[in-house]
Amino acid sequence: MRKSLLVLVFALVVMIPTLTLAQATAAGTVVGVITDQSGAVISGAQVTLTDAATGSSRNASTNAAGAYVFVNVNPGSHSLAVSKQGFATTRASSDVSVGVTTTINLALTVGAASTVVEVTAAATELQTTNAHDWQHRFRFGIGIAAQALAAMSAPS
């Protein structure tokens, strides 16, 4: 039983960071908050992210905090369009990089839906992880597994 538990702990400590790293490095993430001109958050806005290379689009709605998120976004150039009844549609473009969280916060202006506002400001890229962090986590996990092994093999 102890040996089985040790194998399970070791597998979890070694494999989970590796799997997470593989997922994190295959694509990027796009996040943001949608507000009005006064800075009040807008919930229920329709956000569309379009990949310039393929033309494929993904849709999301902002939550009660005005936030949206797109995960597993292919790297490359993307356009973002935000619409909500009573506001002009606002568009922005940004490049998405592998393993990077790109933040695109937009402020909608009051107007008809047929009015389009183009935003030319560059998006902010927020890199929340890097290779050093993953190496540290991996080494820490190996240390925990070694301690567990030593504790289980010690005579009772």
Description:
The structure is a single chain. The protein has two helices and ten strands, in the order αββββββββββα. The longest helix has 24 residues, at 2-25. The chain is of the alpha/beta class and 156 residues long. The strands form two sheets. Strands 1, 4, 7, 8 and 10 form a five-stranded mixed sheet that branches. A five-stranded mixed sheet has the order 3-2-5-6-9, with no helix packed on it. It is globular. The chain has one domain (2-153): Immunoglobulin-like, CATH 2.60.40.10.
Summarize the model shown.
By secondary structure, this protein is of the alpha/beta class. Helices cover 30% and strands 36% of the residues.
Write the layout of secondary structure elements.
Layout: H1 2-25, E1 28-36, E2 46-51, E3 57-61, E4 67-73, E5 76-83, E6 89-96, E7 101-103, E8 106-108, E9 116-119, E10 124-126, H2 131-153
Parallel strand pairs: 1-7, 1-8, 6-9
Antiparallel strand pairs: 1-4, 2-3, 2-5, 5-6, 7-10
The rough form would be described as globular
Question: What is the level-2 CATH architecture name?
Answer: Sandwich
- What percent of residues adopt helix (DSSP H or I)? 25-40%
Radius of gyration, CA atoms, in whole angstroms = 22 Å
Number of helices: 2
How much β-strand is present in the residues?
35-45%
Strand runs, count: 10
Mean pLDDT: 76
Largest sheet: 5 strands, mixed
- Derived from helix and strand composition plus strand pairing, the structural class reads alpha/beta
Which regions have little confidence, pLDDT < 50, spanning 5+ residues? 5-9
CATH topology: Immunoglobulin-like
The H/E string reads HEEEEEEEEEEH
